[in-house]
Amino acid sequence: MEAAIKIKEETLKVFKKASSVAVLTGAGVSAESGVPTFRGKDGLWRNFSAEELATPSAFSRDPKLVWEWYSWRREIIRDIKPNPAHHIIAEWENTFNDFCLITQNVDGLHAKAGSQKILELHGNIWRVRCTKEEKTFLNHEVLSDNVPPLCECGALLRPDVVWFGEALPEGIISKALENIRRCELFFVIGTSAIVEPASSLPLIAKQSGAYVIEINIGRTPISHFMDDTYLGKAGEILPCLHSESLNLRE
Ligand code: BJW
Q1: Nearest to 176 by CA among 18, 14, 24, 15
Q2: What is the CB-side half-sphere exposure of residue 6 using CA atoms within 13 A?
Q3: Candidate from 170, 195, 200, 214 with most ligand 1 atoms within 8 A of CB, to mutate
Q4: Rounded to whole angstroms, how far apart are CA atoms 82 and 75?
Q5: Model confidence over 107-156: pLDDT tens digits?
Q6: What's the pLDDT at 181?
């Protein structure tokens, strides 16, 4: 039988007292729903890595190849359901007076779980953007037979996501920083913490005085400065933390 997850006294104490909480999520949060992560053994698609495909130069060189990757991912994500980790995070929006969800994920699963205020650092896979006029549109088709798609103006459409070498949406990163600088408790969940600038956010939280907790199935380059690290699946640890802490908040 699996050992029960032990939530530390200190975590519960901080959780009980905190009124201002921020959460940063990465692909690991969606892994238990069946969304492949970027890195590690499931992180490859046709032997390409995210670093080879998620770039403006890959798109200029071969927009069909890049769109085929996004169509494959859209097909996987389309019918997938949020898991307990997404649901608990959605519930925290009502638990804390001041709560901020910052995600690197583009899959839309936090919204499907009921989170309403989401800072999507890397965009959303269900939006497309005209490469000529910068207009964005929602588009929920898989588009597999018809890539790359064209805008009505004739220009190529691209996924409205942030690729390597591109700036994160200005308004979103500044809102995230504002929340991070004032939060008392910061969670880093399911990210390898190697992609900048997202991977610097936990350190900024820590330097601003927050208690920082990491939840991941493995250690990451930022584990060493965490106040607490929980090694395990987000979809198992978050429900334990949530139910133990609810008893305390009552
Ligand atoms: C579980 C689990 C379970 C599994 N439970 N856990 C400073 C130093 C060096 C380089 C740079 C630097 N600053 C900028 C750079 C360059 C670059 C960068 O960081 N490169 C690194 C690779 C070194 N950064 C950028 O280019 C960024 N832009 C930028 O900085 O612009 C500056 C600029 C300013 C002004 C003008 C112009 C430019 C942009 C980065 C964009 C990243 N984009 C992607 C693709 C998004 C679209 C799409 O989805 O296709 O974002 S790449 C990919 O990586 C995606 C992810 O959001 C991101 C992070 O991945 P994530 O979420 O951490 O996933 P994984 O797979 O890596 O990890 C999963 C984790 O989950 C693992 O740890 C598992 O253990 C864990 N896990 N199951 C809990 N059940």
Answers
A1: 24
A2: 4
A3: 195
A4: 15
A5: 999 999 999 999 999 999 999 999 999 899 999 988 878 899 999 999 99
A6: 98
Q: Strand pairing of 136-138 and 123-130?
A: antiparallel
Rounded to two decimals, the pTM is: 0.97
- CA–chain centroid gap for 126, Å, is 15
Domains of the chain are 9-35+83-122+167-249 (3.40.50.1220), 41-79+132-161 (3.30.1600.10)
Are the C-beta atoms of residues 108 and 29 closer than 8 Å to each other?
no
39 Cβ below 6 A of ligand 1: yes
Q: Is 231 helix (H, G, I), strand (E, B) or coil?
A: strand
Whether ligand 1 lies within 6 angstroms of the CB of 190 is answered as yes
What are the residue ranges in the chain where pLDDT is below 70? Answer: 1-3, 248-250
Two structure tokens written together for 137: 């549109």
State the pairing for strand pair 123-130/118-120: unpaired
Q: How many residues does the chain have?
A: 250
Residue type, 227: D
Amino acid residing at 129: R
Q: Is the dihedral of CA 173, 65, 52, 73 positive or negative?
A: positive
Give the residue, by CA position, lying nearest to ligand 1 atom 35. Answer: 167
Specify the DSSP element, H or E, that contains 157: strand 157-161
